[in-house]
Design brief:
Distance between the termini: 15 Å
Largest sheet: none
Low-confidence stretches: none
Oligomer: single chain
Mean pLDDT: 97
Shape: globular
Strand content: under 5%
Length: about 70
């Protein structure tokens, strides 16, 4: 989960997106993104797919299964 948290923050920061802007652009909620970034909740498989498509990376990359 730590790799996911780091990569989500990194990808969001690279695009200079706030949690709210990412939520709006990707069709998610800001509270979900905040809880994923703090590690208090685990994203669903569907949310991981949405994020991977939005950022143009694989779900394996987001989850730390590939570099």
């Amino acid at each position: 989960m730590e790799v996911f948290i780091e990569r989500l923050k990194e990808l969001r920061d690279e695009r200079n997106l706030s949690q709210m802007q990412l939520a709006i652009d990707a069709g998610l909620t800001q509270s979900a993104i905040a809880s994923w970034e703090t590690g208090s909740r685990v994203p669903s498989a569907q949310a991981i797919i949405v994020l991977a498509k939005f950022f143009g990376v694989s779900s394996d990359y987001l989850l730390g299964l590939e570099k």
